[in-house]
Design a protein that fits this description.
6-stranded mixed sheet, about 150 residues, 4 helices, 6 strands, Nuclear Transport Factor 2, Chain: A, alpha+beta
């Protein structure tokens, strides 16, 4: 098995564990300290982040739509979805959900996550997310006006 294939399996295992709500198993895919969006984050902090996401969205799902492994990187295009049933305490998902009462509404938006691995563990994570789209779907921001092509 190639290094790329092993790295892809690690990232797929992380997704499966997170989607199952098994934070400890999800954390097993990470190095003791990870660069998360350019900031050093010990595993314990990642656990708090993942737990806070599952508190806000108990049915959260990070579906893999496409996955590419190249050298020490794995890039994933995801559909991030769930139902807003809890109150977040941490400034994740763009920091827009801290203290927000549950809306009971669902969302499904696109994410792109880029993982760098060394020795079979994730050492760096970066992402581009549609936080505004999520907030619109949850009814916390107004929908943008419809796009119309001028005649």
């Amino acid at each position: 098995m190639t290094e790329q294939a092993r790295n892809q399996q690690v990232v797929e295992a992380y997704h499966a564990a997170f989607n199952a709500g098994d934070i400890e198993a999800a954390l097993a895919s990470f190095a003791p300290v990870v660069s998360n969006h350019g900031r050093a984050a010990p595993k314990a902090v990642l656990g708090l982040i993942l737990g806070d996401i599952r508190t806000r969205f108990p049915d959260v799902h990070l579906g893999i739509e496409e996955i590419v492994a190249v050298r020490d990187c794995v890039i994933v295009r995801n559909t991030y979805s769930g139902t807003h049933l809890g109150v977040g305490r941490l400034p994740v998902d763009g920091g827009l959900m801290v203290g927000v009462p549950p809306t009971g509404r669902t969302f499904a938006v696109q994410h792109i996550h880029w993982f760098t691995l060394r020795g079979g563990l994730i050492v760096e994570h970066r992402a581009n997310r549609d936080d505004v789209g999520m907030m619109v779907q949850l009814g916390l921001l107004p929908a943008p006006p419809a796009f119309e092509i001028p005649e």
